[in-house]
Write a structure and sequence with these properties.
Layout (H helix, E strand, L loop, with lengths): L7 H4 L1 E4 L9 H28 L6 H29 L4 E3 H34 L4 H4 L2 H27 L7 E3 L6 H7 L5 H34 L4 H29 L8 H25 L2 H11 L3
Parallel strand pairs: 1-3
Antiparallel strand pairs: 1-2
Length: 310
């Protein structure tokens, strides 16, 4: 247990190798990740500000998008600074306590984003399939409740998974071939039976991924049926375009996560784990605000007003 068994576990350190096996790429990787992180922070904070100040964007869809941007900002800020630090310093050690804190907040963000994407699919489903009842089924109170559920799911899952790590013992300093505190980091470093923890990860990861994906896919089945019933081709195109951003965000978020956590033995390769982790911890938080802003006239219009572009 990570409390104190002769203070052994609390004294153990992890050494995160990150990308240190490519010393010639340290500077290019630092510049790349720093640029991506800067774009992610500016994009997500900018999205939050734009949605908050624009009267045109005071709708449920943008309310959910604002919280999605907040979650992406938090997630990238939890992970990327440590990644950048490990690219420029020789001491890449991190205590178990700090690693568990990073992991706990990271899980909260990931699980919250899963539910938030499902909530946004529900919002599109009601808007397209039941437009006359939209203000009833997606009322302000209902929006607050759905967002509260998303954050609650993230926190509860984080507590359960963190507990499954706290019951393990860690007996020696461990060199970890990763850049962040993934669940696999703890499992590879433990000197106690990890069977229970592995089962908990498999059950929770699969349940959350498959349940939220089921909501998203079911919503879009009804959406596509409704779209194909439309007589106007311009109406079909316009309706599809409102879903394109969300579908793109869902694809880039669930893709690497599905291969990392839902396919047994897929993550045997440390390079696969690192690339997958980089994608959904570094790249996805940057892409989401770009995806939603580049395809949205209201967002671009508000941005032009803020920057005084005519």
């Amino acid at each position: 247990m990570v409390t104190s068994d002769n203070n052994q576990s609390t004294a153990v350190m992890f050494i995160l190798l990150g990308f240190s096996e490519y010393p010639q790429l340290k500077v290019p990787l630092f510049l790349l990740f720093f640029t991506v992180y800067a774009v992610a922070v500016l994009g997500n904070v900018g999205m939050i500000v734009i949605i908050k100040i624009s009267p045109k964007l005071q709708t449920p869809m943008y309310f959910f998008l604002k919280h999605l941007s907040f979650v992406d900002f938090c997630y990238s800020t939890i992970v990327v600074p440590k990644l950048l630090e490990n690219l420029v310093v020789e001491d890449r050690s991190i205590s178990i306590r700090c690693c568990i804190i990073q992991f706990s907040f990271g899980v909260t963000c990931v699980m919250t984003e899963m539910v938030m994407l499902a909530v946004m699919a529900y919002d599109r489903f009601v808007a397209i399939c039941y437009p006359l009842l939209y203000t009833v089924y997606v009322s302000p109170k209902w929006c607050v409740l759905l967002v509260t559920v998303a954050y609650s799911c993230g926190i509860i899952n984080s507590i359960v998974l963190t507990y499954s790590l706290l019951i393990l013992s860690y007996c020696e300093t461990k060199i970890i071939d990763n850049f962040g505190c993934e669940y696999s980091v703890f499992l590879s470093a433990t000197c106690s039976d990890k069977h229970f923890s592995e089962i908990m990860l498999y059950i929770i990861a699969n349940f959350n991924i498959l349940s939220t994906l089921s909501i998203i896919l079911t919503s879009y089945i009804f959406i596509f049926v409704t779209i194909f019933k439309m007589h106007s081709s311009s109406g079909r195109y316009k309706t599809l375009s409102t879903c394109a951003s969300h579908l793109t965000a869902v694809t880039i978020f669930y893709g690497p996560m599905f291969f990392l956590y839902c396919i047994p033995n897929f993550k045997n390769s440390s390079l696969v784990v690192k690339l997958g982790s980089v994608f959904y911890t570094v790249v996805v938080p940057m892409l989401n605000p770009l995806i939603y802003s580049l395809r949205n006239k209201d967002v671009k219009g508000t941005f032009r007003k803020l920057t005084y572009f005519k």
